[in-house]
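ok trying this again, last paste got cut off
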Amino acid sequence: MKLANLAAFFAPHKTIPPTRWKAAHRWDLAPIRVIILFVGLAIFGLGDSLLIQSNIGNAPWTVFAQGLSQRTGLLIGWTTAITSIFVLLIWIPLRERPGFGTLSNIVLIALFIEVGIHIFPAQDNYLLGIVFALVGIALVGVGSALYITCGLGPGPRDGAMTGLHRVTGIRVSRVRLAIEVTVLLAGWALGGTLGLGTLLFALLIGNSIAISLGVLARQTAK
């Protein structure tokens, strides 16, 4: 593949593209759509586990889940699921409606974080830790693109973000930033790992998702 073609293949996409598997509503459960959703959430969870095992810093919500895990003695998969459930409760006053994808997000991401932690070795080597973090961010981007394009409902955190934006009128970017910073600081106070991996995630996750959406858009257009 020529360099120009390679660049075009990985060009980021600015919006969520229409796909052949997009649902008509949040409980439109065609088999292929559910499979793509589950695969996306599994990839997301495995990517998050690579960030954890990198030992150089986690994504903000995982910093919180890890800190909560250390304080309670629960597995990090459990604390991830518990955190998601509590975030989902915020949807009630915001009048957000969960979908099949929302509930699947809570269960499968937590499950595959635990699976990944048992598969991938924790890194003591800093350079290998950076590799783990970068691969993890790429996988989170791919997983996000797959489950978002199914149209079966946002994850608990995304729904809270859009709900707060709608109720308060504050820009989505500012709402998300406020949530991420608050969660990150709380997780750090609880003992979660904060470091270069956290910074890499903040800088790269947006492009990782956009590139993955672009690849899906071009492949489904064929």
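PB: full thing came through this time. The longest helix spans residues 196-220.
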